[in-house]
Amino acid sequence: MKRISYSVGLATLLLATAAAADYTVRGKGRLVLTSGAPVARVKCQLMDADPDDDEVLATGRTDSDGRCDLTGRAEDDMQICDNCDRPDPYLKFTLNDPHRVDVEDIWGWTWRLVTKHKDDKKGTIDFGNIDFKGEGNRYLISFAAAEEAYDNFRRISGDTQVPGHDGVVGVTSPQPFSAGTCYTGTENIHVPSGETCSSSMPHEFGHRLRHAADGGADHFNLDLMWFRYLRSHNANLHSNLGYAFNEGWAEYYARAVQDPDRQLAYARNADYAGGDETEGNVSHKLMRLSLSCGGFKPMWRALKAGKGKSIPGGPAGAQAGIHSYRQFETVFMHQNPKCELKPASYWKADKKEDEANEGRKKEAERSSRDSRDVQARAERPLRVKWDSTRLAKLPASVRPSMTRIEEKRTTHAKARVAKARIALRDFESEIRPNIEGATVDPAKLASARSKLLKILATERLSQLDEIQKDLKGELVKVKDKRFRAYLERRLAKSEAQAAEIRESLANPGPKLPDALMPPDM
Question: How far is residue 89's CA from residue 126's CA, in Å, rounded to a whole number?
Answer without folding.
Answer: 11
